[in-house]
Amino acid sequence: MITISIISLKGGVAKTTTAVNMAYTPAAVHNKKVLIVDNDKQGNASKAYKRYSTEDRNTIARVMLEKNINTAVIIKETDYKNINIIAANMDLLEANLGTIVDTGRQQQTRFKKALAALDYDYCIIDNVPDINMSIINALVMSDDVIVPVFIDQYSFYGLEILLDQIAQVQEDFNENLFFDGCLITQYQNNEVNNQGIEQLSKQRVPLFNQRIRRTEKKVSESTFAKKPLVEYSVRCGAAQDYKKFVIEYLEGEDARSKV
């Protein structure tokens, strides 16, 4: 199972939209088995796949708090073939706090011990824009990290902090963790966007070639419809961009596996 963390320290960069659509395409187009882990207490990925409930006690929070968790209890089927999800809600906030004070067992490897041996082709983790114990658990478990970036200065500040955290996890827990690069979202072909991309390139930050165009109306509509954008509006620019992005990621992963 290849585990991919979708993460950014800035909100509003299409992080959940990226995770939701990245999960859909391998399952629907390539017949791959995909597990989504909602690692955000707001539960937006869970809402997108219609598996969110404030009353649900069988969420990712249990992985943080319980030793030897029965994963069959927390994995839910979705309405889509090949896609399952571990949902999240506000219980995750309490679970993070509980994990910090629980020094009786290792805090950083709970996701890995509970989930890494599951039988899926891909596990995609939608992470909260924060650095907390569940985020560290996600990075310790992950093979790849993808960072959605909206071109503004605040995103760049957060990126520096995040890259430092990734490097720290690589050094302490997961030497095989690979930073695939930044995915430019809400892209517009204008001077600000192109200068921002040039700045990232000068800093030698890896970038995906594919950019996700700004199509705010269709993206917003898809969230109300509770459908992945690539299903809700097949012809819109962002939907087409996400399909191409997934192909680029899969080709990159295949090339690395042959090295």
UniProtKB/TrEMBL annotation:
Q: Which Gene3D superfamilies match?
A: P-loop containing nucleotide triphosphate hydrolases
Xref: CDD domains: ParAB_family
User: Per its UniProt entry, which superkingdom is the organism in?
Assistant: Bacteria
Question: What species was this sequence derived from?
Answer: Lacrimispora amygdalina
Q: This protein is called what?
A: Chromosome partitioning protein ParA
Q: Which InterPro entries match?
A: AAA_dom (IPR025669), DNA_Partitioning_ATPase (IPR050678), P-loop_NTPase (IPR027417)
**Ranges of residues in domain AAA:** 3-177
For this protein, the record's Pfam families field holds: AAA_31
Signal peptide residues on this chain, from the entry's feature table: none
